[in-house]
């Protein structure tokens, strides 16, 4: 019988000893020292203590696979969850997504301006890039990076916790069911956390404000807290299918390719699969993205609902307008998908590369 989460009991202790370290391994060592130090787990039934060396420690498969061994610590009929693994997952997800968001922000700005405009096409916006300039292309990058780091950190940690706990809490679930459920839970909570940053980012990208302080003060003063969460419903309708379908498509495509080639995918191959999976699901969810952009960039004080925005687009611009910005969205999301999926796995692997009995301190 599997115990509940309240019955988990653990005490973290530092068992590392000070040794001299090479400069090039300092960063990974610090992260290992902070997030994956030795854990002692105590069974609430028997009182017996377990360490990572006694049980399933943090071992990760080659890039292209998720963890090969679950960091759930079994202690008799009780199961303990490795909190260090979840913190590491949050950091890996947050860093990979924040980096990819900053790198691809100019493409996202072009996409936003195409979708926010009722007259300008993708080609016309592209012709204005010299006029927009580098500074204009990176408007809104601060809330974009902060939002991606916080939301994807939360999303990946909840995803990992759910993916590891669900098979124990609901043994009847199959692998193909566990992943979508875990991805759904992580996406809903992570996306909700990011909505205010998304509103500020898109209003800056659409040139409604000059800086993030002005955007925040004006939005709060005009619409209050509701204004910062404008478009939450349609954003969830975009994000949940995107991440659930994207994660499932990535996982199943990777397995299919591995069966065809008869080996584990190399890092560049996993990145290619992640890019195609992300790009394809991005195109599928573009209509929700267009509606979200129109709602978030609507004039302050105007109460524009999702259905009103959809009706206005359909009647004034036609059905194809729902796919405005699909091209830049594909090229923005393909590298994003590659970095979010394969890059996330690379960071997970890197965080546990250095042995845990080595410390970051020097003599």
Tell me about this structure.
This protein is mostly helical and about 375 residues long. About 65% of the residues lie in helices and about 5% in strands. It has 13 helices and 5 strands. The protein has a 3-stranded antiparallel beta sheet, with no helix packed on it. Strands 4-5 form a two-stranded antiparallel ribbon. Helix 3 (about 105-115) packs antiparallel against helix 13 (about 325-350) and helix 7 crosses helix 9 (about 230-260). The longest helix is centred in the middle third of the chain and has 31 residues, at about 175-205. The N and C termini lie far apart (about 50 Å). Residues about 1-20, about 20-30, about 30-80 and about 355-363 have low confidence and may be disordered.
């Amino acid at each position: 019988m599997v115990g509940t989460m309240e019955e988990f009991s653990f005490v973290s202790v530092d068992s590392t000893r000070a040794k001299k370290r090479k400069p090039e391994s300092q960063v990974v060592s610090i992260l290992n020292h902070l997030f994956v130090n030795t854990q002692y787990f105590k069974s609430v039934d028997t009182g017996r203590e377990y360490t990572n060396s006694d049980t399933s420690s943090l071992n990760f498969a080659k890039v292209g696979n998720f963890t090969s061994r679950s960091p759930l610590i079994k202690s008799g009929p009780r199961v303990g969850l490795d909190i260090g693994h979840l913190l590491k997952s949050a950091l890996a997800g947050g860093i990979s997504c924040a980096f990819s968001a900053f790198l691809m922000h100019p493409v996202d700005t072009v996409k936003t301006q195409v979708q926010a405009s009722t007259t300008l096409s993708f080609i016309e916006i592209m012709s204005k890039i010299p006029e927009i300039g580098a500074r204009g292309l990176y408007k809104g990058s601060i809330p974009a990076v902060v939002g991606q780091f916080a939301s994807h950190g939360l999303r990946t940690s909840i995803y990992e916790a759910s993916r590891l706990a669900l098979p124990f809490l609901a043994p009847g679930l199959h692998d193909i069911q566990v992943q979508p459920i875990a991805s759904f839970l992580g996406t809903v909570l992570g996306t909700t956390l990011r909505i205010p940053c998304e509103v500020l980012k898109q209003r800056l990208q659409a040139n409604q404000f000059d800086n993030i302080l002005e955007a925040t003060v004006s939005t709060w003063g005009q619409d209050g807290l509701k204004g910062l969460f404008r478009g939450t419903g349609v954003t969830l309708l975009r994000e949940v299918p995107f991440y659930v379908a994207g994660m499932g498509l990535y996982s199943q495509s990777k397995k299919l390719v591995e069966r065809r080639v008869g080996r584990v995918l190399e890092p560049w191959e996993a990145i290619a699969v992640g890019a195609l999976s992300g790009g394809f699901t991005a195109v599928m969810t573009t209509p929700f993205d267009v509606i979200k952009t129109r709602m978030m960039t609507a004039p302050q004080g105007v109460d524009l609902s999702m259905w009103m925005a959809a009706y206005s687009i359909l009647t004034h611009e036609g059905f194809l307008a729902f796919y405005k910005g699909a091209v830049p969205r594909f090229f923005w999301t393909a590298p994003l998908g590659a970095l979010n999926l394969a890059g996330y796995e690379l960071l997970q692997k890197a965080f546990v590369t250095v042995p845990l009995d080595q410390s970051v301190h020097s003599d």
